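User: Sorry, folds how?
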Amino acid sequence: MDFRGIKPGESLACFIDRVVNPDTSYLKQCGKTIDEVAEVLKSSQFNYRVMRTIKGGSIGKGTAVRDLSDVDLIFPIYDITTVETLKQKMSGIKDAIHSLLSLKFRIKDSTNTTWAYNTHIFIDGDWQEVDIMPILNITQDPSNLTDEEIKSIHTKMRKEVGSTERGYYNRCLRPLQTEFIGKHLEKIKRVIRLIKYWIKTNEHTIIKSIAVELLVIGAWEDLGKPHPGIPEEAIAKLVFDKLKNFGDIKLSWTDYYQPADYSVPSKPYILDPVDPYNNVIGEITRHYHRGPNVPKADIAVMQQVDRLQRDAKRALNSFD
């Protein structure tokens, strides 16, 4: 089978246990990193009143790959209740996080994105990548949103024209996204970790972790949500088949909104189950081109998609 490090004759289940699944020491290190960074953010030295810290990302969802996943922390700030206020204060918040972490830890490779502060922290002899994301305080409990609060956020997003503004509301929905993925069976998470491992070791940077998670869930649903006893191979093969035929991918869910009530993009697309405006493969959708004469603006993306499809075909054939 086409997985880096698999031994001749080794079963896929054994390979996942031996190489892909996070071991106790890795989870312990991630947990310690989360606890220590959260303690810093909630300390009196931080000049912003943090409501609580929420574990997000692959660690929060239970889909982390051993030694290949970062730590994500989300925290709402008490007195920041509008997008405009958070936009104005975001730079200062990131600077305050950087200054405080620099005093408490050895850090390196610190960068800012629009919505988060990213750094690497040295804890217990290892470097751990950390994403820290301030969000709006617009719900009673960010990790337990009510139906009314979800609808309210979607309504606010509808009124926003810019993707940046909608992005601030999207981050308020991240705990709900974590819950949606995290509630699935361990068998599904094992396949998610496997496909993430394959994506990372083959350097397919065009595909984000959230897209992999949703692809695997979609494959499991296409199989009829089978019993947990289904072998990992059956789900993985269907995922690789979807990747091989990337242009036909169209995935959405109706747990928190009706996609038909919004503008659904053309294939391929994977809609965020909690955010109707977030196509998690949006860059590919925008540049996807069918046919031989690819416009210059789309060549770079389509080259990455073509390589992904070739590699997925090879991986699918390796099961036979």
